[in-house]
């Protein structure tokens, strides 16, 4: 069956209209997170971890407990941020009570860009799903706003880690999974902060964050694209740094600059 | 009630007056309890001040945890005091108060700006969080070290200076802010904390739990809105698990500082071992001029052993940055004493944090020292130059690394070095000269950018 051009346009427009009608609805359903649009501090949004049930979602783990795990993982990054061209800057951890995206599709491009412009670096949430036969799946989703705001081709800026469990996980199981997965947080944080520093032409901060990100991401086989992207962007930032001949980046040969982070972090 | 208030005011005034004389001419080991609010307190003439804040509850909890947090802070203070007895010229302060007043960053900034920490003096801030999940309580400690710069000081001194071939290579540890692994506190441990606190919150007349005793008014400072003074003691010595102190008016007393009953704090919270090492490191390793060899002493050995003990704990692996810092500090202490090769500690630290410029710099320095001095080794200039260049790539404005790279090229340029070079890894003289000029130009340009007015 042939679809005429006018029919295609009509169908496309209907689909777009439906999508547009749905998108604001999704965005509207995403609970606001207090403090997400204030000030110039880097922000990490901590959403709810919920059991997905037919009757509606139920919280699994207190936000405070999640926040503590996150702060432990991210505290170490503060020094790098504070010492490098972000006067009096710090990382704010926002407990987004009641906020639990249904999926990454809840984040429109506009929302991604707005969040990135407001210095939101990372957002994450967790969900426990029943799989049948008593099995459950627990997943954690991460959004790296600056990466997700990039024009394709670029990594998606959305990452996830998941675990299947033989029974319904207890809060203790969920907490252990968070601890096991907490190495992901600094990796995604540095990747997103590096991309943002690059966007602001803060070249030396960009290479620092991006080389740290690629080193941390190397341990995560599912994030090869993001690691390669961090590598390439760091090399581009290094090219910019070398133009002024006033930093250590100028000491690298052209070949070393092509693979800047590999050279800088391997021995 | 009025009598109690007047007594309290009298006590605080007396303490404040006594404290004023103490601050002007402090003895070797002062300790104090004071309030977070108002002007924060520290001992001005101490080389190292350790300021411990209460552990606060993070978020809501069915159980009120702030009381436990204050108890824990006092026990951490007393354990730190017990462990600090090997050192001299320190002060330990326990600040109490509500969460909004006990912000570590604000207190540290005020202590530094108000010159409560003398120029060149060191400050270690210790704080932490408690949170509850079901029946379990978790504790997590953080620490950060600061140094008040000397007047007109342009660049802070480094933690190690390594003289080699007429040049001095300098390095610093890769971290000054430390996160420690969260620890679960089972009910039995919380009970032990509460029981131990009940014993520790007294000044005893003799080093025996059944001797007569007077309460330390910790709560009065916690509730005090504008306390300008502190309740301070001078430490006379240690007798077993007891610390002999003199209270105001010269009255003798004893604090029980090391309570093993129920659970040892260091077993449950290895950070107290790290703090012991950090205190010794800051007190001794960075006070000596860089090119002098440290006078090896029991103090340094205590510090080095504590840092190694922390690094060897299983839990330390959860926070690789802090473990790397422990390895580096212990390596620096050992090197400063013996000049023997401890490069493997710096290599291990680098493996933990391969993205740290300062960590790579230290590993490069010790590889250089090792290869330059050991008769069984030869210098591999290409590898070492790559080490320093990689460190510069990780932090393109790291002036310390650039200075070391310049020193390294100058070292290669000397005839004394030529005989130590492994020919397979040599750098041609022309390339050495070109690279040297390039590094000099970069440093000059960087200095010009960092100069005041730019």
Q: What gross morphology of chain B would you assign?
A: elongated
User: How many individual domains of chain A?
Assistant: 1
Unreliable stretches of chain A (pLDDT < 50, length at least 5) are 1-28, 84-88
Q: Note the run of SSEs of chain B as H and E.
A: HEEHEHEEEEEEHEEHEEEHHHHHHHHHH
Question: Can you walk through the features of this model?
Answer:
The complex is a heterodimer of chains A (267) and B (454). Chain A is an alpha/beta fold and 267 residues long. Chain A has one domain (15-213). Chain A is built from ten helices and six strands, in the order H-E-E-H-E-H-E-E-H-E-H-H-H-H-H-H. Chain A has helices at residues 5-29, 63-82, 109-117, 145-148, 171-181, 184-199, 203-217, 224-242, 254-258, 260-265, and strands at 42-51, 58-59, 91-95, 120-132, 135-144, 158-165. In chain A, strand 1 and strand 2 form a beta hairpin. The longest helix of chain A has 25 residues, at 5-29. Chain A starts with a helix and ends with a helix. The model of chain A is unreliable at 1-28 and 84-88 (pLDDT under 50). With 454 residues, chain B is an alpha+beta fold. Chain B has two domains: 2-168 and 172-267, no CATH class; 378-454. Chain B has helices spanning 2-24, 66-84, 104-113, 187-200, 218-223, 265-268, 271-285, 298-312, 320-338, 343-352, 357-373, 381-394, 399-412, 415-418, 429-450, and strands at residues 30-35, 48-57, 90-96, 122-133, 136-147, 160-164, 167-171, 177-179, 183-185, 202-204, 213-215, 230-239, 242-246, 252-256. In chain B, helix 7 packs antiparallel against helix 8 (298-312) and helix 10 runs antiparallel to helix 11 (357-373). Residues 1-27 of chain B have low confidence and may be disordered. At the A-B interface, helix 2, helix 5, helix 7 and helix 10 of A face strand 4, strand 5, helix 11, helix 12 and helix 13 of B.
Features:
heterodimer; A: 267 residues; alpha/beta; 10 helices; 6 strands; 49% helix; disordered N terminus; B: 454 residues; alpha+beta; 2 domains; ten-stranded mixed beta sheet; 15 helices
């Amino acid at each position: 069956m042939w679809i005429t051009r006018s029919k295609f346009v009509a169908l496309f427009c209907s689909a777009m209209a439906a999508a547009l009608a749905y998108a604001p609805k999704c965005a509207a359903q995403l609970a606001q997170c207090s403090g997400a649009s204030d000030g110039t501090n880097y922000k990490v949004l901590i959403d709810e971890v919920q059991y997905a049930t037919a009757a509606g979602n139920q919280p699994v783990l207190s936000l405070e407990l999640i926040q503590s795990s996150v702060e432990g993982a991210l505290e170490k990054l503060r020094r790098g941020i504070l010492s490098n061209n972000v006067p009096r800057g710090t990382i704010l951890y926002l407990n987004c009570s009641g906020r639990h995206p249904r999926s990454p599709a809840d984040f429109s491009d506009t929302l991604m860009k707005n969040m990135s412009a407001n210095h939101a670096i990372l957002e994450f949430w967790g969900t426990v799903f029943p799989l049948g036969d008593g099995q459950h799946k627990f997943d954690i989703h991460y959004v790296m706003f600056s990466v997700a705001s990039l024009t394709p081709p670029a990594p998606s800026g959305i990452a996830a880690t998941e675990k299947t469990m033989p029974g319904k996980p207890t809060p203790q199981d969920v907490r252990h999974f968070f601890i096991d997965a907490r190495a992901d947080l600094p990796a995604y944080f540095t990747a997103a902060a590096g991309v943002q520093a690059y966007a602001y032409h803060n070249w030396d901060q960009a290479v620092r964050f991006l080389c740290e990100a690629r080193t941390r991401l190397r341990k995560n086989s599912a994030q090869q694209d993001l690691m390669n992207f961090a590598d390439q962007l760091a090399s581009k930032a290094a090219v910019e740094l070398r133009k002024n001949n006033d930093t250590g980046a100028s000491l690298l040969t052209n070949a070393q600059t092509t693979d800047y982070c590999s050279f800088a972090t391997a021995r | 009630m009025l009598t109690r208030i007047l007594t309290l005011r009298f006590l605080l005034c007396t303490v404040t007056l006594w404290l004023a004389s103490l601050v002007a001419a402090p003895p070797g080991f002062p300790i104090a309890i004071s309030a977070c609010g108002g002007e924060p307190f520290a001992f001005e003439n101490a080389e190292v001040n350790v300021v411990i804040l209460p552990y606060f509850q993070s978020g809501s909890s069915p159980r009120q945890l702030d009381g436990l947090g204050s108890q824990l802070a006092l026990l951490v203070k007393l354990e730190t005091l017990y462990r600090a007895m090997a050192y001299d010229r320190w002060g330990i302060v326990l600040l109490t108060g509500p969460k909004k007043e006990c912000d570590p960053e604000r207190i540290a900034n005020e202590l530094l700006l108000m010159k409560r920490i003398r120029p060149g003096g060191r400050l270690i801030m210790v704080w932490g969080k408690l949170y509850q999940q079901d029946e379990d309580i978790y504790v997590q400690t953080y620490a950060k070290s600061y140094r008040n710069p000397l007047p007109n000081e342009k660049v802070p001194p480094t933690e190690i200076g390594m003289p080699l071939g007429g040049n001095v290579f300098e390095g610093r540890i890769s971290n000054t802010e430390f996160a420690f692994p969260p620890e679960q506190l089972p009910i039995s441990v919380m009970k032990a904390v509460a029981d131990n606190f009940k014993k520790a919150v007294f000044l005893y007349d003799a080093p025996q739990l059944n001797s007569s005793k007077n309460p330390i008014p910790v709560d009065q400072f916690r509730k005090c809105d504008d306390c300008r003074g502190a309740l301070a003691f001078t430490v006379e010595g240690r007798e077993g698990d007891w610390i002999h102190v003199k209270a105001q008016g010269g009255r003798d007393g004893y604090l029980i500082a090391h309570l093993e009953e129920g659970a040892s704090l260091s077993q449950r919270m290895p950070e107290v071992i790290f703090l012991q090492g950090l205190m010794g490191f800051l007190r001794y390793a960075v006070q000596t001029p860089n090119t002098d060899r440290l006078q090896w002493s029991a103090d340094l050995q205590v510090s080095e052993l504590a840092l190694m003990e922390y690094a060897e704990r299983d839990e330390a692996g959860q926070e690789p940055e802090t473990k790397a810092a422990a390895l580096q500090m212990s390596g620096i202490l050992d090197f400063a004493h013996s000049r023997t090769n401890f490069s493997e500690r710096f290599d291990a630290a680098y493996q933990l944090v391969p993205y740290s410029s300062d960590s790579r710099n230290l590993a490069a320095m010790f590889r250089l020292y090792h290869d330059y001095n050991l008769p069984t080794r030869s210098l591999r200039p290409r590898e070492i130059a790559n080490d320093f260049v990689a460190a510069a790539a990780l932090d393109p404005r790291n002036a310390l690394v650039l200075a070391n790279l310049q020193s390294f090229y100058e070292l290669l340029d000397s005839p004394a070095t030529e005989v130590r070079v492994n020919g397979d890894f040599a750098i041609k003289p022309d390339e050495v000269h070109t690279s040297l000029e390039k590094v000099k130009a970069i440093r000059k340009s960087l200095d010009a950018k960092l100069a005041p007015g730019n």
